[in-house]
């Protein structure tokens, strides 16, 4: 039987071990928290899953901070060099519309912004559908994770696998007119010619938005997020249910968009003759899923699950649309040359219809 002395000794030992355990726990927690704050865990998770992990920035740096640093650095080379303006969420902060300067440069910025937000009216001879640049690049091209234009300006010239060449920013915009704006159906039948003031004004607008962003930098939120293909694949039937519950109110039950009382398109058509053609990046299911997951329904980003985003992207892109401008022969030939390996319904048969022939060769939207 244990005497009082033994009990006191055992009790003391228990307290000592508890103290050691508590101390070790605090030490491990501190170390783990330090590793988390360093971003190592986020980078590891991103590398494994292919998803972007958002870790809020601990030190916001405003545009006012940048301007003050610019002035100090101009006077004294020993002063701290100006940094990139970022918010508490770690995303780059483009200048506000109220910051557009006066004079010819500011006039060009405003023209570029107007072209961007009301493309069909401003460049009507080269737009063959009811879309505007701002439909795919939200908040007038400012929104992170919606392929913002400040990131595009800092990223070109660049090699593009789609063209197999080095593309300038003008080339890239010309491609958007060709595919997303379906220029083939416009009155001119083609995008604005190289050197057009349309490109000059758009690029001036983009350059102004990128003021403070290092050239060649690919900041967070530069494109659409990559959303891994779900283990249950994607399904048009499930996508229809997601569409009816979350998308039809704005884009219409038949996907043809909705208009204001004056006839101006309020929410864009998602398929049919007035939408993007089969050569557009958004016609790929994985690209559309990333955009939808991060940005839709409008005002409710990340409210859909990744599975729902893939399913509704599949539903939207399971409908016919204008044919790929590059298609000069059969759908099968274009599929092999331009769409092989894509997450796309191009060249597939759904509901007894071959997709890719274009809306001009089918009845209805």
UniProtKB/TrEMBL annotation:
Keyword Magnesium: no
Signal peptide interval: none
PROSITE patterns: CYTC (PS51007)
Location of the Cytochrome c domain: 107-213, 234-320
Residues spanning the membrane: 20-36
Superkingdom classification of source: Bacteria
A single MF term (Gene Ontology): electron transfer activity
Family annotation (SUPFAM superfamilies): Cytochrome c
UniProtKB keywords: Heme, Iron, Membrane, Metal-binding, Transmembrane, Transmembrane helix
Pfam families xrefs: Cytochrom_C, SoxA-TsdA_cyt-c
PANTHER family the UniProt entry points to: BLL4482 PROTEIN-RELATED (PTHR35008), CYTOCHROME C DOMAIN-CONTAINING PROTEIN (PTHR35008:SF9)
Protein name: Cytochrome c domain-containing protein
